[in-house]
What does this fold into?
Amino acid sequence: MSPGTSHLDSLLPALSEAYGPPGRETGIRAAIKRAVRGLGAAREDALGNVHLHIPGKGARLLLTAHMDAPGVIVTRVDSSGLARLSILGPMSAADWIGAVVSLNGRGGGGSRAEGGGRSPREGGDAPRGVVGWDRPKDMKDSREVEPEALYLDTGLGAKQAPKRIAVGTVGAILDRAEKLGDLWCGGNLDNRAGCAVLVAALRGARGLRNDLHVVFSAQSDLGARGAATSAFGIDPDVAVVLDVAFVGESRGGDIALGKGPCLGLKEEGFLPHPAALDLAKRAAKGARVPHQWLIRESGGSDARAVRATRSGVPTALVAIPARKTGGPRVLVNANDLEQTVKLVRQIVTTPYTGEKGSR
Amino acid sequence: MASNGDRSSTDWLRYITSLPGVPGHEEATARELMKAFRTVADRVERDRMGSVYAWIEGTGRAPRPRALLAAHMDKIGFLVRAIEPGGFLRLTEVGGFDSRTLPGKEVSVHSRPPMAAVFGTRPPHLQKHGEAERTIPLEDLYLDTGRPEAEVRRRVPIGTMVTLRQPPVELLGDRLAAPGMDDRAGVVVMIRTLDLLRSKRPAWDVVAVATVEEEFGVVCLGARTAAENLTPDLGIAIDVSHGDMLGAREGDTVPLGSGPALSIGGNIHPLILEDLKRSARTLSMPFRVEPCPTGSGTDAMDIQIASSGVPTAVIGIPCRYMHTGVETVEPRDVDRCAHLLAHYLSELSLEWRAVEVLK
Amino acid sequence: MSRNGAPVFQERLLETISNAPGVSGGEEAVRAILAEYARDKVDSLEVDPMGSLVARIEPAPRRARSARGTGARGNGAARKGPHVMLCAHMDEVGLMVTAVEKEGRLRFRRVGGIDPRILPGQVFRIGIEGTHAVVGALPPHLVPRTERDKVTAADDLYLDVGARSQEEAEERVPVGSYAVFDTTYEAWGTTRKGKAFDDRVGCAVLASLIQRRPPVPVTAVWTVQEEVGLRGAAAAARRVQPDLAIVLEGTASGESPGAPPDEQYPYMGRGPALTVQDRSLMVHARLLGAIEDTAKRHRVLTQWKRPGVGGTDAGRIAISGSGVPSAVVSVVCRYIHAPAAYLDVRDAQRAVTLIWHTLETLRKEWP
It folds into this structure.
């Protein structure tokens, strides 16, 4: 078994269950800082991104994966003690049904400097609940679920719930990824799979041919926010964004699990820069990694924000194919993860030949 | 205006609109444009994101203020997203098409070497009842190259660029119809403006930028990154404006032949607009004021908010049938825009700035 | 309600700027009033390339206490504190005249979000002179029954200035002119009525805060074009490069007769609303905590803004450059983006008091 795989076996479950909804990435930030210990000094910036600089000669390469995963925010607690929700991120209301959610304070509880409390798995005592919905009386086959119909039932009851759960409390899916045959299954795999791959790739990388900046970005699901500010601060020559892409989002010549990582050709607001795409293609060839082409009409990654930073950053997108299940958990293929680790390792050891920015 | 000038604009339009170059795939076009700009500019270069800069050095003492002109070199088109049994191609668009304008049209598939193709249609004899009353969305359209599947698969990689194949057509009154007037007509205006400025040099430095990726995504990528790179003191976008057409609302169009359309609205700095109007009156040139209540929808949108803000204006070339293969302009309007711009720029005083210090 | 030494809310100014015209892209009149007000109170004042008004004010000089305390806290009095950008937008929603027809009728487009259903029968003021115009509507007698429950699209409506010809109309109201609701400010009890409380109340709160030197270095920015895409703030934030930003807004109340009580927040009259999250940003947790703590300590009544709704300049400021911790404090108003909005003037004072004391908190405790 290659070193990458064994790393993933422990990394992915740990990173997948860390608390980290968009804008309140407290748990995952701590988990990532632990995971990259020894690789370099990890800094945190104004938006909560984790930035790791591994110095080297050559072009300034930014490798980034978003660490936030979809969340919910409490808009009110109704008379039955059910917390009503607004959705943070791209997960549809229907997919939230049945999710077990861990809540944290708005900004209080636990470590104030971190801006949040700790989930039960981190030793905190934040309430948990399950997401239900107001089923309409006459249910046809279609599951057209409005966000307003969702609620979080914490079992605290009508009297306790309003006291313990304040408006603005943010929740995340509480789930630990597990292996099912060839597949990994869990909530939060978008994009904890990308984070795990990135960490695993760094741990095994030898012979860097670029000056490497690694960013685990925050608030991607709120609109690529952390990636924009971190790219601004770093001002790289080239960037590769690592994310997850769902089967069915790509049109015709659809992507599939088990066929290797996807190289992005088009997504919402993003077209790859030829020189950056060339880096990714050369790396795929050099590492002999099978890959697919991603073209999606809706849905996007941090790539669209990174490339528009400052005087522009030639950017490419590497996406791990994933499949939705119609509920909170999603699936990725274990071999795809391993191939993506190989690809990322090859990228950081391949010199970038495009134009460098003037500094 | 001498008839020589009209001829020359028409020739430029014929040539420049014929170049391919869809968003993200402007490389070859950029090289040709650099050659074209070299016949009129002091210095020509390309930036990292692919935009072309053509400089006219000003006569003022250094450090001179800098005026940025922008016209986008990308024109709308498609990318091949899938190849089907039979060798038929499925497409994704880059830039906004009305799919109703596509059935039956000829296209160029930019493989190496390029091949011709047509959007396939079913003749009325074979259509089902009512079929002709339904529009066909792009995802259901396909291209037929007339070649065997094996050849197509060998020569056409996924992601290949596709453009409308329609040679320029001369209509009555010198009017010219071709795909890509949006915004190659603007590029021609810039070429003609620089030509005029060589003999009547401005005090300011003028850099004409043929931008990339205006037609794709929410951000005009080339304009934004060029403005961040160049930090201009003023920016003017030259793009096409909707010409008079049956069925369009009053206030939404500008008649062909009525001269430059000068935009008014939040995206436009009022002082630049006043000076443009003054220049037009001095030249006894007709012009129209084009209302832009929520923005101009041009490169100027992104130039204005680049860095710490840039005063901007927009000059529009009246153009009928935008985003089809028969975009129609009057070369006379193109000439007028160039003369207006050249006059405005050569009259710009070295002291003009948009930041007003009150205390 | 005690101000605890915070400045007094300048209601007169609110009245003046509420009545003044300032549609997104045409904010000159409002800017002129604010510039006049601010000129002798600030250290520098300029208009940026997009038209936003930017004022810098150094903090009040503090005498250092005698060195009795130990450690960092002993130097609390001499700390300058973070550079804070306080921001409110000058623009309001309105209309732009896009064409003058042969008969002298005006075609228009909306600037910013306006429900088309409030337009028929509405009076507008056009341009600096305030030329009156009405949005015509057919009398009920002449409308077929089948049409009565259809909403007329804004594109099918027109403005009537009473002109008899195209020339007459064009001379008074050229293409590109802006139109605002014809509303005049009024007061009764603690209720205030006026147009454009979103965000003239924020502008007035901001102006009130700079009456005297604040506890920390402040750059006050009255931005343009918020209602058409948060545009002025994007450029202004790069110019100012603050350590922190607080945006002052006028936000929609949730009050609605017949709706369940728990769905009706925030309420007019129950204090400034604090944002946790909206469509444009997730408010910085620690900054929000500082504001919350200040409210508790100084007993300023506050409430929560409904998460997931709306967007403000803070969304742009937060992601400018390498990122700026940002928060939003809003005065709750009824009927924003409509001709006549309501607010409770006590909430405006509460907002001034809250922000003032928050600046003091930030001086002592940030970062």
